[in-house]
Amino acid sequence: MSNNAISNEIESEIEKRRTFAIISHPDAGKTTLTEKLLLFGGAIRLAGAVKGRKASKHATSDWMEIEKQRGISVTSSVMQFDYKGHRVNILDTPGHQDFSEDTYRTLTAADSAVMLIDSAKGVEAQTKKLFQVCRKRGIPIFTFINKMDREGRNPFELLEELENVLGIRSYPMNWPIGSGKQLCGVYDRKKTQVELFKGDDHQEISVAPVSGYDDEIIREMAGQHLYDQLQEDLMLLDVAGDEFDFEKVRDGELTPVFFGSAINNFGVQTFLENFLSLAPSPSPRKSSDGEIEPSYGPFTGYVFKIQANMNPAHRDRIAFLRIVSGKFERGMSVKHVRAGKEIKLSQPQQFLAQDRDIVDTAYPGDIIGLFDPGIFRIGDTLAQGKELVFDELPIFSPELFSKVTIKNALKQKQFQKGIDQLTEEGTVQVFRTTTGFDEMILGVVGQLQFEVMEHRMRTEYGVDILLQRQPYQFARWVIDEKLDPTKFRINSLLVKDKKDNFVALFENEYAMRTAMEKMPTAKFLETAP
């Protein structure tokens, strides 16, 4: 194949791809939405009983034992399917508030985000944190307001909250006809059509083109009261609402909003089709060699996540790689830049949660899993051609801390192996004290990470550990040429991270502010330098 033909092939594959993450607060219905999208893509035949925690069938995207017990997504998995000429990669981020560190990193591999909001609860704490990470990266954000079939808040109130709490303007792509038990359809403002429930049991959905929101079809289906309400709402939106601006959507300044109910499949297909037409194809990534465009010829990619023991029978470790440019081919040799050596990528895999297929080719925007014999770390760059390095993935500041000790001293070797692997995966951050006894302190973003840590150390490495909670609430990386450890004696502790950077742990904001005042020349950073 000529270089021209290869370049055209890559361009056409890039254009097809949409790689996005779904961000939400726990219980907003993320796993349900993910499954319904997979269902439309023909990737699964039957959506699992997500809430049936005792049932043997668990959601396709939840595979770890602890997830099955709790009925939540703890780890980020990747799912891929085709829909109407598009190749869709969904990064299923953990929805549990205690798993934001992994979620933050996964967002670096996405080109856009779908923000899922519960119509009764509005914007919740976790959504706010995740939104900020997307905002910093300037990626487009699409909003799906879920559970419209339940009693919830007024749609205008929800749109107002998006602006007041998150600071983002919104454009409703569709509008609900009724809500809660009265919900009978949604009106699609862009396509001038209605999506309506059919029959008394609301099991079927029909889509009908209409002349506008004053069409008689809507009056017949919805009744006079809901018809009048729809007229009033949409006239108000037409006069006072934001205009649709494609450029603002691309820059992450305007969010297209969709109303629906994932559990009933309601509004999901309309959302998917609109999303695919508006969402960006794979975008460039910053590197030591400037921005690398997806169309840049040689293959490049970076590891954004490492997951050990996805298949307990094989004790395997998978490094998740986001392809940035070029064409990936099974068996190809690439430069592992940090290690400074050539490696062969012989068993790459693509995922539908637990189901994995060996992949022969992949393109920018795709996520592939590489078997990891222990050579990869989060943030590693793999490249052909130039020896470039992609900007390092940020390490976020933990908020909970525990001193960790081993119950059986004879298992020191297994303990160390477990600690090393779980830190490389980003399950926990490890700090060591700088004075007196050499003690190990673990830092996490939320309590559940400690539970996962204990569970995995016991089941995968055969080690029982003892965790003693520490009183600290904040961690800041400290950069100062003349660092004086004596300044961290009251309500604080000076420790070192795995790269030997100094980190100060503080019990409260007052202690942190005091240290900053005493050390005006020092920099206190929220993410690792």
Question: What does the model show?
Answer:
The protein is α+β, with helices and mostly antiparallel strands and 529 residues long. It folds into 3 domains: 17-77 and 85-278, Rossmann fold, CATH 3.40.50.300; 285-383, P-loop containing nucleotide triphosphate hydrolases (Rossmann fold); 400-525, 2-Layer Sandwich (Alpha-Beta Plaits). The chain is built from 12 helices and 31 strands. Helix 4 (100-107) packs parallel to helix 5 and helix 10 (412-425) packs across helix 11.
Give the SSE layout.
Elements: H1 3-16, E1 17-24, H2 30-40, H3 65-70, E2 77-83, E3 86-92, H4 100-107, E4 112-118, H5 125-137, E5 141-146, H6 155-166, E6 169-172, E7 174-177, E8 185-188, E9 193-198, E10 204-209, H7 216-240, H8 246-250, E11 254-259, H9 268-278, E12 285-287, E13 290-292, E14 300-308, E15 317-325, E16 328-329, E17 333-336, E18 341-344, E19 349-352, E20 355-358, E21 361-362, E22 367-371, E23 381-383, E24 400-406, H10 412-425, E25 429-433, E26 440-444, H11 447-461, E27 465-469, E28 474-479, E29 492-496, E30 502-506, H12 509-518, E31 523-525
Parallel strand pairs: 1-3, 1-4, 4-5, 5-11, 6-11
Antiparallel strand pairs: 2-3, 7-8, 8-9, 9-10, 12-13, 14-15, 14-23, 15-22, 16-21, 17-18, 17-23, 19-20, 24-26, 24-27, 25-26, 25-29, 28-30, 28-31, 29-30
